[in-house]
Specification:
Strand order of the largest sheet: 1-9-5-11-3-2
Order of helices and strands: EHEEEEEEEEEE
Distance between the termini: 17 Å
Shape: globular
CATH topology: Jelly Rolls
Helix content: under 10%
CATH class: Mainly Beta
Strand content: over 45%
Structural class: mainly beta
Oligomer: single chain
Length: 147
């Protein structure tokens, strides 16, 4: 996992293929409608709008094929990171996701405008959380095909 300021995202371009395209897309994402946008090389972007929820009500997730770059456009959420999923369900290949009710080795942080987080395949995370009060958010998630 990498968490950094959005002004620093370009420094990772040599190490992580697709970051430059994600950065270019992110520059115009604030004005886009919610939905899925196809990029190149099996990459795609999701502009999401939703209400944050109590973290205890949310599932943990991990991916096998795609890395996630997540940038908050409006609002903020409590994002969870974990060393491993616990009690995981079956892999959903079309959605490239494994869900689990629990995880071990937990950490949490606020994702807000001006920050991005990158989760590589296999890294457990829990998006959409709130800090006790539900908040409407707009977020950009860019899925980078890594496998």
């Amino acid at each position: 996992m990498i968490i950094d300021g959005t002004g620093q995202i370009a420094r990772y371009a040599k190490s992580i293929p697709g970051i430059e395209e994600a950065l270019d897309f992110a520059a115009g994402a604030a004005s886009l409608a919610a939905g899925r946008y196809e990029l190149s090389e099996g990459n795609y972007a999701l502009v999401q709008e939703y209400e944050t929820l109590a973290p205890s009500s949310l599932a943990w997730e991990a991916h096998r094929i795609h890395a996630d770059i997540q940038l908050m456009l409006e609002g903020s959420e409590v994002m969870g990171w974990a060393e491993a999923l616990e009690g995981e369900g079956p892999y959903d290949e079309p959605k490239d996701v494994i869900l689990a009710p629990r995880a071990t080795g937990l950490a949490a942080f606020d994702l807000r405008p001006g920050l991005f987080v990158l989760f590589l395949p296999g890294e457990a995370h829990r998006p959409r959380g709130n800090a006790g009060i539900a908040m409407r958010v707009r977020k950009l998630v860019v899925k980078l095909r890594m496998a």
